[in-house]
């Protein structure tokens, strides 16, 4: 790439060997002009070294304190799912736009929907000076980022004025409390308002469009595969019956539904390549020397469609995650959330959200093609995420649950 060597890791074996078996050697992000302008080397996604370690550790710990993986947060996700069901119900079975719904990252917090494709990003990385003077989506992304950051800073100010840090209720309270506590005993601390603002922007950037896109694929695929949709609905009905509430734990009792969700994330990978990494020292991967400083991109698409790993990689086939008895099986090459030290920080939250939203929606509705439509276009559009073409479908209320 320009004068910097770039290696693309293709297939499960290469990605596993580099990102998992040599995790620490590929832990850094290469930060060119665009990424430095985007995040100022702060926060989690585009920071490195000590800053990244501290911010990531804090982010993970705080998400757990806020109830991730516990009933509290799941209950809030359920509330969000309930609101989405109500929104769809208002259409009374008439066709609705598949892009209409948004997924809230932290329930009851803010939502953001970035839709402009990052089509000029590669050009920006190759010709930063030239691109700086040209208009294009990369400029919009920078402008969005600035808007989100100043909005977040206002939020931080309001949190400080409320003095709620001693009874922390959300991520910002926890962070401010930690800042107050650590100022004297941690001389190398990176806990400050700039990093806080960037962490929040990162969580919005990484956590909203991704999950929303996966859900858009889920509904499109259910409309295109009514046989699979019916099997999910039958399993959910037979297992959960009329009980209103269910939890992420219930996925263990719903192997087919769980397999369908995994297959959606496999066959319609939301991020087809990982966020770039940099090689920290000379490393030998499967007999190839990757010199220190090389930029490395993991092609997750090639892992999720690797013919050595998947029986029918090009087909949408939930059996990839089921054994002969219909029990759910984990697959090593299922890496839609990346791998190694930089694996997606929101993986568990995303899994909980997708399971609860998907199951709630399929309990309440059958997703059908609008009259006259034979099939929805399942070819992805390349943008910040791989998302479907705009589509309409009908959410027909199901008698048994309405
Ligand atoms: C379907 C949903 C999602 C998918 C497919 C997804 C996928 C990914 C992938 C492929 C990476 C890059 C990993 C690498 O460099 O190898 C990543 C990073 C990241 N994701 Fe996600 N993600 C999803 C949802 C979320 C959510 C809900 C959050 C936050 C609440 C989140 C936060 C992050 C963060 C902070 C990083 C950067 C981690 C780091 O640099 O240390 N993601 N994600």
Automatic annotation (TrEMBL):
Organism domain of life: Eukaryota
Protein name, entry field: Cytochrome P450 2J6-like
Family in the record: Belongs to the cytochrome P450 family.
UniProt cross-references to InterPro entries, sorted A to Z: Cyt_P450, Cyt_P450_CS, Cyt_P450_E_grp-I, Cyt_P450_sf, Cytochrome_P450_fam2
SUPFAM superfamilies for this protein: Cytochrome P450 (SSF48264)
Record-linked Pfam families: p450
Stretches that traverse the bilayer: none
Cofactor: heme
Keyword check for Hydrolase: no
Alphabetic keyword roster: Heme, Iron, Metal-binding, Monooxygenase, Oxidoreductase
UniProt KW Heme keyword: yes
């Amino acid at each position: 790439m320009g004068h910097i060597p770039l290696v693309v890791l293709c297939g499960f074996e290469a990605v596993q060997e580099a990102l998992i078996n040599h995790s620490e050697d590929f832990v850094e992000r290469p930060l060119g002009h665009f990424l430095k302008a985007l995040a100022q080397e702060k926060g989690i996604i585009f920071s490195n070294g000590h800053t990244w370690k501290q911010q990531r550790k804090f982010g993970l710990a705080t998400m757990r304190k806020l109830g991730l993986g516990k009933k509290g947060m799941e209950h809030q996700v359920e509330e969000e799912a309930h609101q989405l069901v109500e929104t769809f119900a208002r259409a009374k079975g008439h066709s609705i736009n598949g892009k209409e719904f948004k997924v809230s990252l932290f329930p009851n917090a803010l939502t953001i929907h970035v839709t402009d494709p990052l089509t000029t990003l590669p050009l920006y990385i190759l010709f930063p000076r030239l691109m700086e003077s040209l208009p294009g989506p990369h400029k919009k992304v920078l402008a969005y980022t600035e808007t989100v950051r100043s909005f977040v800073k206002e939020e931080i100010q309001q949190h400080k004025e409320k003095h709620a840090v001693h009874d922390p209720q959300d991520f910002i309270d926890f962070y401010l409390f930690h800042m107050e506590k650590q100022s004297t005993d941690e001389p190398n601390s990176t806990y400050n308002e700039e990093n806080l603002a960037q962490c929040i922007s990162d969580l919005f950037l990484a956590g909203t469009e991704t999950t929303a896109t996966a859900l858009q694929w889920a509904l499109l695929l259910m409309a295109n595969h009514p046989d699979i949709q019916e099997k999910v609905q039958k399993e959910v009905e037979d297992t959960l019956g009329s009980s209103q509430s269910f939890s992420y734990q219930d996925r263990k009792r719903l192997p087919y539904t769980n397999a369908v969700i995994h297959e959606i994330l496999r066959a319609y990978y939301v991020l087809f390549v990982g966020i770039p990494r940099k090689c920290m020292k000379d490393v030998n991967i499967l007999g190839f020397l990757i010199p220190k400083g090389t930029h490395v991109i993991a092609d997750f698409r090639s892992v999720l469609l690797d013919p050595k790993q998947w029986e029918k990689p090009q087909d949408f086939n939930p059996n990839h995650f089921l054994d002969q008895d219909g029990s759910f099986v984990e697959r090593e090459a299922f890496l839609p959330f990346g791998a190694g030290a930089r694996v997606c920080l929101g993986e568990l939250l995303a899994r909980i959200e997708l399971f609860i939203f998907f199951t709630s929606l399929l309990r309440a509705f059958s997703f059908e093609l609008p009259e006259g439509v034979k099939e929805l276009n399942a070819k992805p559009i390349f943008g910040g995420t791989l998302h479907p073409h705009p589509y309409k479908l009908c959410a027909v209320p199901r008698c048994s649950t309405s």
